[in-house]
Design brief:
The chain is mostly helical. It contains four helices and no strands.
Length: 118
């Protein structure tokens, strides 16, 4: 089961990265200006500290996984479960960062007068 977990998590991360940008109500919108505004908003979103969220998630997952593994078995079990916890925590941190980045882009576009539909 553990061998399946990592590929599935990586697939989930890749699917999340492949998501398209926000959908806006285009009525009355100058699309050239929208593309410039979208680029500006996406630049703001790069300020979300993805590395810190992924690293923090990995650390928290490893600590919790290691503790659970120590309770359930020996040090080898603890190490394996800590590894699974680190991968799971990393994925959760990456997901949190991606959600925050989408939120920044949406709020930025809303602030510039666009009606974001998704």
């Amino acid at each position: 089961m553990t061998r399946l977990l990592l590929p599935l998590m990586l697939l989930a991360l890749l699917c999340g990265c492949a998501a398209r940008g926000p959908i806006i109500d285009r009525q009355g919108v100058d699309m050239a200006q929208y593309q410039r505004d979208l680029a500006d908003c996406e630049a703001y979103a790069t300020e979300v500290d993805t590395g810190r969220k992924v690293g923090g998630g990995a650390l928290a997952g490893a600590v919790v996984g290691g503790a659970v593994g120590a309770i359930l078995g020996d040090r080898h079990t603890a190490a394996r479960i800590a590894g699974v916890g680190a991968v799971t925590g990393s994925a959760r941190g990456a997901g949190t960062a991606a959600t925050e980045k989408r939120s920044v882009v949406r709020q930025c576009l809303n602030g510039r007068g666009y009606r974001v539909l998704n």
